[in-house]
Design a protein that fits this description.
It is found in: Cell membrane. The protein is mainly alpha-helical and 459 residues long. It has 20 helices and two strands. Helix 3 packs across helix 5 (80-95), helix 5 (80-95) packs parallel to helix 9 (165-178) and helix 6 (97-107) packs across helix 8 (132-162). The longest helix is centred in the N-terminal third of the chain and has 31 residues, at 132-162.
Length: 459
C-alpha cells in the first residue's frame, strides 16, 4: 500500500514539475501565501494590531502581482516591517521567483537541469534560443542599475522633504516604479492620493516615467538592444515592442490631454507645461504602473475609456508589467489588416508570423475579456449600486487584471465577494490566462491530428 502510494506521489510530482507554467503559477501562489501570513502579524501594522486575513491577502496579492490596488493606506497603516514585506513582495513578484532561483542556481555553478531551463524560459521568454545564464545575470544587473539610479535621483526630492526617511521612500518608490507596482508611501496626505502632491515636480515624474518604461519593455528587449551593436539590427520582437510602446505613449498622451485639458477636476487648473507632463505621466502609468497625479474619478467618460484601453493592453512580454501585452495587440491588428487586404498569413515587417502565435494572441485576448467581464459583473452585483457606476467597476476590474493599480475608489467600497474577484483578477493577470490554463491541465497538450475540414461562414 505504502509502496503504491509512493509511486503515485512520485508520478504526481513528476507530472506537476513537467509543466513549467504550473511551477510558475505555484511559485506566485506560495509567495502570496507567505506574504499574507507576514502581513497579518501585529508587527506589520503601525497600530500593532492583527490585520484581517482578507486585507492581508488582498495586499499580498497586489504586491506580488505588482498591481498597486490597496484596501489599506500603505504609508499610514503598515509599519516599517510591513512596508519592508510589501517591498520584498514587489521585488520578487516583479522579477519572478523563477528568475531568482535560476540565477542563484547558476551563480553557484550548479548545472541547471532541462526542466529548470524550461521553467526559466517560460517565465521570462518564449524564445528557445535565449542564453538563460547570461540573461539571468543581465536581469539582476539591469534591475539593480535602474532601481539604485532611480532611488538616488528621487532622493534629491524626498530627502529634503522627509529627512532620513526620504531615503527609504526613494528606494521604495524606485523599486515600485521599475517593477510597475504602483505602491507608494506618500498616502499620509490623503486616501488614494498616490502622487497627486507631486503633479508639479518634473524631476520626480520624469524619473518615475523612465523607470516604468524601462521595466515595461522586457528583459529580452534590453538584451537585444545591447547586442544590436554587434549584429547591427534588432529582432522583430524588439521592433514591435518599441514601435508599439512609443505609439501607445504618444496616442495616450494626446487623447488624455485633449479630453481633460479644460476639466477643472483634473488638468484644468494646471499650466500648459504641467498639463502635457501629467498627460504623459498618466499615459505611461496606465501601461501597468498605477500611479496618478490627479483624481481619476473626476475624469470624463471618454478619458476613462482611453485609460481602460491602455491598461488592458499593458506592457511587453517578459517584463515587470501586465496586460495582454503590446505584442499581442500588434499581432491582432496586423492579422486584421492582412485579412482585409486579402493576405492568407499575418505579415509584420516582411516577416510571416506563425499561425500558432496568432491563435495564442487571440486566445489570450478573449480569455482576458472574459475574465474582466466576470470580475466587473461580480463587483457590480455584490455592491451597493449607489456606490459606483458600471464604467468605474469596469475601470477597476481592468486595472486589477492588467496589474495596473489605478483606482477610482471602487476597491475600498467593494463587497467581500467583489474584493475576492479583484484578487483573482490580479493573480490571473500576472501569471497570464494561458499559463494558468496550462497549469491546471493534468495531461500534456495533445499533438495536432489530421481531421476533415468543416465549413463555417463568419462575418
Amino acid at each position: 500500500m505504502l509502496t503504491q502510494f509512493g509511486k503515485n506521489k512520485g508520478s504526481l510530482i513528476r507530472r506537476f514539475s513537467a509543466n513549467p507554467a504550473r511551477v510558475i503559477v505555484s511559485s506566485f501562489a506560495l509567495l502570496i501565501f507567505v506574504g499574507t501570513l507576514l502581513l497579518m502579524l501585529p508587527i506589520s501594522s503601525a497600530s500593532g494590531q492583527f490585520t484581517s486575513p482578507l486585507d492581508a491577502l488582498f495586499t499580498a496579492t497586489s504586491a506580488t502581482c505588482v498591481t498597486g490596488l490597496t484596501v489599506q493606506n500603505t504609508g499610514v497603516y503598515f509599519s516599517g516591517f510591513g512596508q519592508g514585506v510589501i517591498l520584498a513582495l514587489i521585488q520578487c513578484g516583479g522579477l519572478g521567483l523563477i528568475t531568482f532561483a535560476t540565477f542563484f542556481n547558476l551563480a553557484i555553478r550548479k548545472k541547471a537541469g532541462f526542466k529548470s531551463i524550461q521553467v526559466a524560459k517560460e517565465s521570462i521568454s518564449s524564445d528557445t534560443t535565449v542564453d538563460i545564464s547570461r540573461l539571468m545575470s543581465m536581469i539582476l544587473i539591469l534591475t539593480l542599475l535602474f532601481e539604485l539610479t532611480g532611488a538616488c535621483v528621487l532622493m534629491i526630492a524626498f530627502v529634503p522633504e522627509y529627512g532620513v526617511q526620504g531615503i527609504f521612500h526613494s528606494l521604495f518608490l524606485a523599486v515600485s516604479s521599475y517593477c510597475n507596482a504602483g505602491f507608494d508611501l506618500l498616502g499620509g496626505v490623503g486616501a488614494q492620493s498616490s502622487l497627486c502632491p507631486l503633479y508639479d515636480n518634473p524631476l520626480v515624474l520624469i524619473t518615475i516615467s523612465v523607470l516604468i518604461i524601462s521595466g515595461g519593455l522586457g528583459f529580452i528587449v534590453w538584451q537585444d538592444i545591447y547586442h544590436a551593436k554587434v549584429r547591427k539590427r534588432l529582432t522583430l520582437h524588439t521592433k514591435v515592442v518599441l514601435i508599439g510602446t512609443a505609439g501607445l505613449l504618444v496616442l495616450g498622451t494626446l487623447f488624455i490631454a485633449l479630453l481633460e485639458w479644460r476639466n477643472p477636476g483634473t488638468l484644468g487648473s494646471m499650466d500648459a507645461g504641467e498639463k502635457v507632463l501629467n498627460s504623459f505621466f498618466l499615459s505611461v502609468s496606465s501601461r501597468t504602473a498605477g500611479f496618478n497625479t490627479f483624481p481619476l474619478e473626476n475624469m470624463t467618460g471618454l478619458a476613462k475609456l482611453t485609460v481602460i484601453a491602455l491598461m488592458f493592453i499593458g506592457a511587453a512580454p517578459g517584463s515587470t508589467g501586465g496586460g495582454i501585452k503590446v505584442t499581442t495587440m500588434f499581432v491582432l491588428i496586423a492579422t486584421v489588416v492582412c485579412v482585409l487586404t486579402g493576405k492568407n498569413d499575418t505579415v509584420i515587417n516582411h516577416r510571416k508570423v506563425e499561425k500558432g502565435v496568432v491563435y495564442k494572441a487571440l486566445a489570450i485576448t478573449v480569455a482576458a475579456l472574459i475574465a474582466v467581464m466576470i470580475c466587473t459583473a461580480v463587483v457590480i452585483f455584490t455592491a451597493n449600486p449607489e456606490m459606483f457606476s458600471e464604467i468605474n467597476a469596469l475601470f477597476e476590474s481592468v486595472s486589477a487584471f492588467g496589474t495596473v493599480g489605478l483606482t477610482i475608489g471602487v476597491t475600498e467600497h467593494a463587497s467581500v465577494f467583489g474584493r475576492i474577484a479583484l484578487i483573482l483578477a490580479m493573480f490571473l493577470g500576472r501569471v497570464g490566462p494561458m499559463s494558468l490554463a496550462l497549469s491546471l491541465a493534468m495531461r500534456p497538450i495533445q499533438k495536432s491530428t489530421v481531421l476533415p475540414e468543416g465549413k463555417i461562414m463568419v462575418g
